[in-house]
Amino acid sequence: MPTSSLELKAISATRSPTPAIKQTKEVAKLIDVSSCIGCKACEVACQEWNDLQASDGRPFFGSYQTLPDLEANFWQLIKFNEFERDGKLIWNMTKFQCMHCEDPGCLKACPSPGAIVQYANGIVDFQQENCIGCGYCVTGCPFDVPRFSKSTGKVYKCTLCSDRVEVGLEPACIKACPTNCLHFGTKEQLVQIGKARVSQLKEQGYQQADVYDPAGVDGTHVIYVLPHGDHPEEYGLPVNPTVSLAVAIWKQPLKWVGGVLMLGGVFAAFTHYIRYGRKHEIEADEAPPASA
Amino acid sequence: MTNGWTDIANADVILAMGGNPAENHPVGFRFVMEAKRKRNAKLINVDPRFNRTSAMADYHVQIRAGSDIAFLSGLVNYSLQTKRYHEEYVRLFTNAPFIVKDGYSFNEDEGVFSGWNEQTKNYDDKSTWNYEMEGEFAKIDMTMQDPRSVFQLMKKFYSRYTAEMVARICGCTAEAFTKAAELITSSFPPDKAGTILYALGWTHHSHSVQLIHAAAMLQLLLGNVGRIGGGVNALRGHANIQGGTDNGMAYHNVPGYIAIPKAAHQSLKEFLDAVTPKPLRPNSMNFLQNTDRFFVSQLKAFYGKSAAKENEFAYNHHPKLPENDAGKLENWSWAFIFDHMFSGRMEGFITFGMNPVANGPHSKKVVSALSKLKWLVVAENFEMETAVFWKPEIQALIDKKPEDVQTEVFLLPAANFAEKDGSFTNSGRWAQWKNKAVDPPGQAKPDQEIIARIFLKVRELYEKEGGKFADPIKNLNWWYTNKTSPSMSEVAKEINGWAVSEVANEKDPKITDVKTGGQLNKFLDLRADGSTLCGNWLYIGSYTDAGNLMQRRSTDDPTGLGFYHGWAFNWPANRRVMYNRCSADGQGKPWDPKRSAIAWNGERWVGDVPDYKVDSPPDAGLGAFIMLPEGAARLFVPGQFVEGPFSEHYEPAESPTVNLLHPKHSFNPVVKPFKTEWDKLGTAEEFPIVCTTYRLTEHFHYWTKNNAYNVQLQSEFFVEIPEELAADKGIKNGEMVTVTSARGHIQGKAMVTKRIKPMTVGDKKVYQIGFPIHWGFIGRGSQTGSLANLVTPSVLDPNSFAPEYKGFLVKLEKA
């Protein structure tokens, strides 16, 4: 179970209700993309706070972006996308990390009790000591965020600095941001700040500016101000993210089927073991990142 | 900066040009974003590339590297032709009404000013670049209608820079120029303010000083200098480069921007006569008439008790800039040091916090020059290229081997910025104290200890063995409590200065202004009679009897304009906006009451610390620019710059085109390139591509290549190449390419991008490429010897002697 004193709201693969009784305000992080200069201070702050080791000498992949994608020890990444629209060049720099969904696909998909929890304040947190490394959360995430580490056999992602938030501090990335592109506060406040910025951007000519807080996952605790709100994909964000049907059905109406299949699986595994003996060790090295 | 970082938030219009603040000043850029969010400010970015700043800009124009003067001159012309200038401001505060001397002219076909001698290739006679005089004062016409007035001459001079001409020179379109011009000049109404942010993109050219002159002209026409949210703002690169420049780091100044004594100035009087300006208008304040007080007090700081009235305050101890055999003053600026070294004139060299092999320009020439030294001392916190210039891979650059190098090299481990106390002076002239965070590792010592130990040893040798002219060494004022490692607090006290003996009030001698031993509070506490000691007059007020004011950290902001007078110390006199007299009209009323820098309340100027005599009424005519003898800002610069009183577009030393205005003098006519075997220039036929160099957010110079996090963020040297050029050459993203100039070549991975576009210059299609400077031979990650400065030319601006690191010619091949 989490050591955190934050109130729990949901626990993976657990039927019993959470003991939450305190009134907790939901928190959120607001990323105002129109104010992001892509300086990457947030990337380093994240790694330093979380004691994640830097990796020397990455192969060059032809971009200002630090890495092609998130990694098990790199939990947030500014995505650099350049493209042209109406003869105008656009170079988007968009901070990308766990969205802390209100309806978290990872938690729903997780079969291991207590490996993923959702706090009452909205933070979705992985508890690696309970993680069995099955990777279901990776499949369950509509944003493709969790990353499996072959060296530990566990899955990792942004914690929204739950350890800092718990003691009343803002997440490390927010503290490091020099341009006030990043904000932290209650979700209610931040939606208001986001909307105010959107209306200012509209006055400045960004007619399609919008707050990105996707309804398909009941909203997120990381929200964005996008100058071109009608094209989230240009920022590397899914247009209409939802928890996949398979995960939703498996975890709700068809849960009993899962149970039966599970028993079947155990039976099959047992017969497999009797028939073929124990499994051979497989290669467990970290693969280099694919180039983009 | 004329203004400060926090003040950028007050701007309505921000022109980022010759700098990439979002990339290189990310923390300061918050104030740009604040202006955009709080005031709906417009950010315009003019740059050879579409960069991080462009990504944030409301409007971006791509221009050819090295064509900035043409663009700015176009803006000056646009402002004058469309009457988008602040007329009253121009009349009151600039030299636009001044009458220029008969005989001054500019030859538009040839591109040279009066006084040019085609035989000597020099301006032999610059006497016409001056004002018409009436007696001892300059003649003026306040209507600015006289055809010989600066205003009318300027209008005519810049009329050549039409939108079409700008487009042809810069490689943009006339429409893009005009749209940018409209936005940039929209700050001309009195209640609007616009700022310019620039950095090394302007200073790294063979015409850099005139470039900044052009920017200043534009800001003066728009009425933006001395205004809240205005100014001409140089964004300084290193944390303390401003403090270094203030304190005499460059060879031609002593601390406080006083010109260094020259060989011809054999007595103190001769020197002071040469450097003290005489007023050019009847009531002009001409504050630099006090230069004697500043310099004598500085001599007291240097030579202490040995500096007395009887010996001209030990003026004969002070170094003087020598003349060479030809009778010309020697030049010991950066690139000249290595030219002298290369020609064998130097035996030894001490370098602190510098990496000349990487810094360049022209790394090969630097390596070759260092190889001729008898000894080299490097004080650094990392081993770097300069300290190991003898290694085989670096000597291979000049086809030599380690055994060819006879230089004895000493690498002294030095503490870094976080390992010592002291102050940083930021771009906005705020001197901010910092405390040591951690002890330096191992045997590393703070710079002052390294300097002190060397000095004490040298002095000991002089005392024991004597030597030529030992007095300046023996008499140096080394008063510090800890001789081998002076405390920075004591040095700061000395820079501020104190009263050696009682300083009496000049009007009423019965009143004591500063008691003996008391710290000085204001400039005019200084005396030229030896009763005061002061290391740098600009810093008076930074360390008073109230303590070290650089340590102040009050965030009180009663006006909401971001002055923060209780935060640190802002030279001069804790003033946040320089030339702030210009923020109010002829009656002392602010042009924009919502953004009042200072205003006249009937008795005094109130607001920011006034850059003016505090109790002098607005109509007394002291002149808003109290540091200049004419009291007015110089649109037309009399005599000060070597290539002319107005800024003219000249091509870089290496250019893809002849000068479209005057092919005969295409390149800056007064630049004299070096003549060694290394100083080669290429032609457009052989090297058709324009190239520029720059820095990245992710790195700090050649230093962070030792830090794992920085290396992870940008791990490898790369070359940014336009998509069209890459397609022409069959280069794919990530493939190795070779960039070659007349000086050398480097290799790196191609970053194929839409962010640099091909352009049409004149009638010719021109490509630009560029690369960052942060890699070399030593450090983490991929260090394969791609020193950016292996390809840059050693051509210099003839005023500042800054090298032309930006806008030179190369060819590009797939490796």
Which key features would you list for this structure?
heterodimer; A: 292 residues; alpha+beta; four-stranded mixed beta sheet; three-stranded antiparallel beta sheet; 11 strands; 18% strand; disordered C terminus; B: 815 residues; alpha/beta; six-stranded mixed beta sheet; five-stranded parallel beta sheet; 35 strands; globular
Structural notes for this entry:
The complex is a heterodimer of chains A (292) and B (815). With 292 residues, chain A is of the alpha+beta class. Chain A has helices at 41-49, 105-109, 136-140, 162-165, 172-176, 187-203, 245-251, 255-276; strands at 8-11, 27-32, 77-85, 88-96, 116-119, 124-126, 147-149, 154-156, 182-186, 210-212, 222-226. In chain A, strands 9-2-11-10 form a 4-stranded mixed sheet. Chain A has a 3-stranded antiparallel sheet with strand order 1-5-6, with no helix packed on it. In chain A, β5 (116-119) and β6 (124-126) form a beta hairpin. Chain A is globular and about 70 Å long. Residues 281-292 of chain A have low confidence and may be disordered. Chain B has 815 residues and is α/β, with parallel strands linked by helices. In chain B, β15 (375-380), α17 and β16 form a beta-alpha-beta unit. Chain B has 22 helices and 35 strands. Chain B has a 6-stranded mixed sheet. Chain B starts with 12 loop residues before the first strand and ends with a strand. The radius of gyration of chain B is 26 Å and the shape is globular. The interface between A and B is large, with 39 and 42 residues.
